[in-house]
């Protein structure tokens, strides 16, 4: 009887100790999540807003924003935790299952020759067939490798998003600067027209047309300011900070660089793109799953032991009261071959499907590299054309028309059209400059990161846009 109570106490102790261990929190991140869920449950109206990052306000380089995003972006943090979660599953998958402990009570004593049986305690352990635990561990490791490659893909995608948002912000800022400078030029043209109107050399129409153009420019500046706020909010989301943070690009960005060899780029993409590595890891995972399905044909062994508490008194005169100790052994019988065969064939089909998905992604990667390379090359050539031909001619055209307007050889409408054309070309140049940076960012993502080999310089930005002589005021 004492032994019975000892067993009961031991069982209760193990149960309580297991419950206590299960309640422990090992991950500080989970403690924060748990607290946030608790607060949301009891304070549903309380809103949490990301703080304004004062140290990131104002002009900063794209590298600074990228480093901040790599440490704070929630998509990256989620991907890192998925890797951690899968890594912890490797020892779980490659370990034996918990042993089973059982107790048997007899409401009525079972009388035997040795004495009455009052209580039985049994324990058993399942031992998988040879190779199964290793296969399960390798399967879990393959899942971890898959999420590692996915993490690299998320990081590269985030870097590309930050760069695209940054170059868009740069374009808006520079467009605002150029538009304001051209507005000042238009104001001075308006003043010249006003002087000529007062001297009777032109009609009031020139003056009114200049005022209308100034109003159009002011309207465009309002639209650009709104786009600037939207661009700042988009970049702030990637950095996981308040959208009210006044993020700004530098006034001058370093010219980008384009690898000259398309074949090298495509080889680099096939070798390094994380999405392709993730597909290869998925294929390895499917192969391990197939191996595990084939091992299911082998039976598992279960070993156990049973102790029976036997009383010292009984109906038999030869009762000795000695406790009984039994050894048990058993195996499962994998006799349902149709089920096992279907599992194997399903795993084979899944592996083939993953392989074909890899082929499709590889073809898509080659297409993306070729397309982005063509885009970047075209943008590079257009930048050269704008800086060496179109912009100088547009500035010269405005200069000549400004001088001709003073002598009455060119009317005001032609002068304004030339001014508008110059502004359009200046904005187009800025758009190309930003688009080239965005194309290179996408190309870097597709090839799995940047490399300093096989690079050729991209032409630098031309001199100040609005370094033009103004129409002279008539004497």
From TrEMBL:
GO molecular function: efflux transmembrane transporter activity
InterPro entries on file: MdtP/NodT-like (IPR010131), OMP_efflux (IPR003423)
Pfam families for this protein: OEP
Segments for region (Disordered): 453-475
Entry keyword set: Coiled coil, Signal
Top-level lineage group: Bacteria
Keyword check for Protein transport: no
Signal in keyword set: yes
Segment forming the signal sequence: 1-22
Residues in coiled coil: 207-234
PANTHER family for this protein: BLR4935 PROTEIN, OUTER MEMBRANE CATION EFFLUX PROTEIN
UniProt family annotation: Belongs to the outer membrane factor (OMF) (TC 1.B.17) family.
Protein name: TolC family protein
Organism: Gimesia benthica
């Amino acid at each position: 009887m004492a032994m019975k109570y000892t067993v009961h106490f031991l069982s209760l102790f193990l149960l309580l100790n297991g419950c206590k261990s299960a309640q422990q929190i090992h991950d500080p991140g989970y403690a924060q999540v748990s607290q946030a869920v608790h607060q949301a449950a009891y304070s549903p109206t309380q809103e949490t807003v990301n703080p304004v990052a004062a140290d990131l306000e104002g002009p900063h380089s794209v590298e600074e924003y990228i480093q901040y995003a790599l440490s704070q972006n929630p998509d990256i943090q989620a991907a890192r935790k998925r890797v951690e979660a899968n890594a912890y599953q490797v020892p779980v998958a490659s370990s034996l299952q918990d042993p089973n402990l059982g107790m048997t009570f007899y409401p009525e004593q079972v009388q035997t020759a040795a004495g009455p049986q009052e209580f039985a305690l049994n324990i058993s352990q399942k031992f998988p067939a040879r190779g199964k635990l290793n296969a399960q561990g390798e399967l879990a490791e393959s899942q971890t490798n898959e999420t590692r490659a996915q993490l690299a893909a998320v990081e590269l995608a985030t870097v590309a998003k930050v760069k695209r948002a940054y170059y868009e912000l740069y374009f808006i800022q520079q467009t605002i600067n150029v538009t304001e400078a051209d507005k000042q030029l238009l104001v001075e043209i308006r003043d010249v027209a006003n002087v000529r109107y007062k001297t009777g050399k032109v009609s009031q129409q020139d003056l009114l047309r200049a005022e209308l153009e100034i109003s159009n420019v002011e309207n465009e500046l309002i639209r650009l300011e709104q786009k600037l706020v939207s661009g700042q909010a988009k970049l702030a989301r990637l950095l996981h900070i308040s959208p009210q943070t006044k993020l700004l690009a530098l006034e001058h960005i370093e010219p980008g660089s384009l690898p000259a060899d398309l074949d090298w780029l495509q080889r680099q993409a096939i070798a390094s793109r994380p999405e392709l590595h993730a597909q290869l890891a998925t294929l390895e995972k499917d192969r391990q799953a197939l191996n595990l399905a084939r091992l299911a044909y082998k039976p598992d062994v279960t070993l156990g032991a049973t102790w029976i508490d036997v009383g010292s008194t009984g109906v038999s005169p030869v009762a000795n009261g000695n406790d009984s100790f039994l050894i048990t052994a058993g195996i499962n019988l994998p006799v349902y071959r149709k089920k096992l065969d279907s599992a194997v064939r399903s795993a084979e089909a899944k592996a083939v499907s993953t392989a074909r998905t890899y082929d499709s992604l590889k073809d898509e990667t080659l297409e993306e590299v070729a397309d982005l390379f063509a885009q970047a090359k075209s943008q590079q050539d257009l930048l050269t054309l704008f800086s060496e031909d179109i912009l100088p001619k547009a500035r010269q055209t405005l200069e000549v028309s400004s001088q001709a307007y003073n002598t009455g050889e060119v009317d005001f409408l032609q002068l304004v059209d030339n001014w508008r054309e110059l502004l359009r070309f200046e904005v187009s140049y800025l758009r190309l400059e930003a688009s080239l940076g965005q194309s290179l960012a996408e190309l870097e993502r597709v090839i799995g990161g940047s490399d300093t080999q096989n690079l050729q310089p991209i032409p630098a930005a031309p001199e100040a846009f609005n370094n033009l002589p103004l129409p002279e005021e008539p004497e």
